[in-house]
Amino acid sequence: MKRCFAVLSCLxxxxxxxGCAGKNRTAERASERAQAYADAINHSYEKPExxxxxxxxxxxxxxxxxxxxxxxxxxxxxxxxxxxxxFYPEVTVSNDGMEAMVVYQQxxxxxxxxxxxxxxxxxxxxxxxxxxxFIDGSYLDKFQDIPYSLDWYYNxxxxx
Length: 160
Fold this sequence. Notes:
- This protein is α+β, with helices and mostly antiparallel strands.
- It contains seven helices and four strands, in the order αααααββββαα.
């Protein structure tokens, strides 16, 4: 009798755990994570480890947090007219809820500029596939052959 009760308890616990596992796999949760990711980029840019925590396991396996933070800081120093700022995420979730495509509006001087990323459901939540240019180093290409200098902007006393 005790053995039967123990087996039944284990089965009930397993059913409850399986039922909770897909609980976060909803369009609502994907939208919440998409907004949280935008907030991290917009407001935690001085702490890129916050952004790193949103990356998929696969992405984090390809780049360490330290290397990501170094690349993010270098990329952030590039003389952008408008730094990366995301808003109004439009989320499209797959039928099985395992992935979501998110299209953000991007602050820019070009109307309608967007920023697209893919979110993947893993470990009970949605994580983003982004920043591949940090992994392959292609983000450094924009630092080559810059035809101008912004020294005058940063050092107005040097203007003659």
